[in-house]
Amino acid sequence: MQILRKKNASPNLLSLRHASGFTLIELLVVLVILTLLAGLVGPRVLDQLGGAKSKTARVQIAEIEQSIDLFKLDVGRYPNDAEGLRALVERPATAQGWNGPYLKKGLPTDPWGAAYQYKNPGRNNAPDIFSLGADAKPGGDGEGADVYN
Length: 149
Hints:
With about 150 residues, this protein is mainly α. It has two helices and three strands, in the order H-H-E-E-E. It has a three-stranded antiparallel β-sheet with strand order 1-2-3, covered by helices on one side.
């Protein structure tokens, strides 16, 4: 079967123009909607990322705290300020009974790339392990707040 076609039949130009793609107005409306969504959702995603860094710091501090407790069981005392957290991965000269390293992967840095701080005795007469937060300064708010054990 053959389809017979008229020789001079022209397709409907109006229907082809609408079927071929999007108009400039439609594209601009979609871009405006996407921009508004990015403006609303973007800050919330970044806030969640920051909160994840603080949670990561708390988890790492808890691991370090367990390691200094093991150090105390073996040596009979916590590392002093001079020995610091380095005593968990390298044997101090004055640590009789040291059975480390107590951190298998070495001494971690905080999620912002700085070294964890150590003070003995700390705030409650126990060792303090802490990160200075995103601003790397004592105190602060939000992501810049210090994270303690």
